[in-house]
Amino acid sequence: MAGGEDDGGSAAAALLAAAAGEMVSRRRRCREGCPGCRLEEANKASAGVPYLNFFYIWVVCLTAALPIQSLFPYLYFMIRDLKVAKEEQDIGFYAGFVGATYFLGRTISAVPWGMFADKYGRKPCIVISILSVVVFNTLFGLSTTYWMAIVTRGLLGLLCGILGPIKAYASEVCRKEHQALGISLVTSSRAIALVIGPAIGGFLAQPAQKYPNLFSEESIFGRFPYFLPCFVISVLAAGSCVACIWLPETLHFHNDDKVDAIDELEAQAGDSNLEAVKAKESRGESTKNLLKNWQLMSAVILYCIFSLHDTAYLEIFSLWAVSSRKFRGLSLTSQDVGTVLAVSGFGVLVYQLAIYPFLAKYLGPIKPFRPAAVLSILLLATYPFMANLNGLELKILINIGSLLKNMFAATITIACNILQNTAVTQEQRGVANGISVTLMSMFKAVAPAAAGILFSWAQKHISGLFLPGDQILFLILNMVSIIGLVLTFKPFFSLPNVMSRS
Fold first, then answer.
1. Other Cβ atoms within 10 Å of 25 Cβ, number
2. pLDDT tens digits, residue range 313-328?
3. What are the pLDDT digits (tens) for 369-419?
4. Alpha-carbon distance 354 to 347, whole Å?
5. What long-range pairs does 165-171 form, CB within 8 A, spacing at least 24?
6. Start and end of every Major facilitator superfamily (MFS) profile domain (predicted)?
7. Which terminus, N or C, of the chain has the lesser number of Cβ atoms within 10 Å?
């Protein structure tokens, strides 16, 4: 009898658990006004890849990244024309702060935008971000004073809070088996921006001088010589903003307190759900300890150091390439710089798609890290001597050098991302990447300003020191890489347990 009662009790418990589970799923299905529930049902009904949604995500990411990449080919000339610098050597000083204000704004707003996206939805965040590109990128192109350029650039970084939410959106808009593809689209769109952005900035800046048959000095593009590249990007952003109409919302808009209570009862009835509850409880405690996870933090520090180096390099390279020969620059045009950056961006895209997978397959993603850092240091040491070259020889070598430098940077960045994600559990990766993005944005905000100040100092000290100013410039830039390289060794660096065992 006792055994029968136990059997009857367990059967009743099983029926209650099944009923609770059915009630939960029915409650969620019945929430017809919730866009997140509606999308989940659509994804359950269709096993195919949501190509159209992925295309919209790709376009949105591209237009959000273009204002960053298009600036560098013409920034030197824009600061010169704004007449804020009293001497030619001071142009780099002022240019650095224009480059820094965007990243400073993004650093301040990264966390609030993430909270906004979690509360009000991913789609409003995406739409507001793209609208900010349309408005403030256009106003930046119409800047008539240095402070107008600073303010519009800073507001663009402050209000374009798409970096974190779009990654979450790309993984939520599709089924689990397609999440990797969705996130890779975010990365690939930014790689394409490395090609298109510099080309837009380099070829479309100062159109009245470059294409006098198409643009007159009296036209708006003649009076505002840096408006055309900004206008083209703003038009593309407006088009992507229209495309956002068809983007489905992925966030659930309903009060889940009661549903969560039933979930907890259901979880107590089933072993698998009980493990999920335990994981959820431990997740809150482990999140507090992320900053104490040295495997994660050492990878984040490496990522920040090399992000600072890459951003400073891009600022210094763009300024150095267009500066005068009397200051040991290359005297290239904005069109030349745009071509160099576009070629290297396309080369990096090919490298990431065709070459790096084989490199990672045979060597692993981490082993090429240190050789790439060492080769990058040796390569940058040769840059000052390119000022002695002219003509075709210079253009060939500067394109090869820029391509190799960006390939080494891509190898290091990929390794840093892998190290960060393998240092934590899957449930912690969202928070871990949030910490990484915030700290990385802080370093990227410092990099252009510091690079601009350093560049201006180097041009004022071309001679009279133990080394020419341009060689000291690239030496200090290399010191950042050397610091990053030293931090890859013990006791500064701790390899994640998964990789140390493999």
1. 10
2. 999 999 999 999 988 8
3. 899 999 999 999 999 999 998 889 999 999 999 999 999 998 888 788 778
4. 10
5. 165/113, 165/114, 165/117, 165/122, 165/125, 165/126, 166/57, 166/60, 166/61, 166/64, 166/122, 166/126, 167/433, 168/117, 168/122, 168/250, 168/430, 169/57, 169/122, 169/123, 169/126, 169/250, 170/54, 170/57
6. 53-496
7. N
Here the tokens at position 23 are 């009630």
Spatial distance between the Cα atoms of 278 and 435, rounded to a whole number of angstroms: 24
**pLDDT of 1:** 45
- Ramachandran area for residue 391 (φ above 0: left; ψ -120 to 50: alpha; else beta): left
Q: Are 92 and 459 in contact (CB under 8 A)?
A: yes
Q: Which two tokens stand for residue 238?
A: 């407006």
Alpha-carbon gap, residue 275 to 176, rounded angstroms: 20
Give the E-state strand segments of 71-157 in sequence order. Answer: none
High-pLDDT (> 90) share of the chain, %: 40
Q: Per the structure block, which two tokens stand in for 257?
A: 């307190």
Q: Which of 397-403's residues contact partners 24+ apart within 8 Å by CB, and which partners?
A: 398/321, 398/330, 398/332, 398/340, 399/339, 399/340, 399/343, 399/344, 402/317, 402/340, 402/341, 402/343, 402/344, 403/343, 403/344, 403/347, 403/348
Q: Which of 169, 176, 191 is nearest to 68 (CA)?
A: 191
Question: Where do we find the tokens 């100040």?
Answer: 453
* Amino acid type, 313: Y
| Length of the chain measured in residues | 502
How many Å apart are CA 145 and CA 152, to the nearest integer? 11
Cα separation of 141 and 138, whole Å? 5
Contacts of 419 (CB under 8 A, 6+ apart): 299, 302, 366, 495, 496, 499
Q: CA 24, 25, 29, 33 torsion: positive or negative?
A: positive
Report pTM. 0.77
Q: Flag whether pLDDT at 258 surpasses 80.
A: no
> Is the Cα dihedral 99, 102, 105, 107 positive or negative?
negative
Peptide bond preceding 491 in cis form (omega within 30 of 0) = yes
- Give the model confidence (pLDDT) of 330-339 as tens digits: 999 989 999 9
Tokens 């990878």 belong to: 299
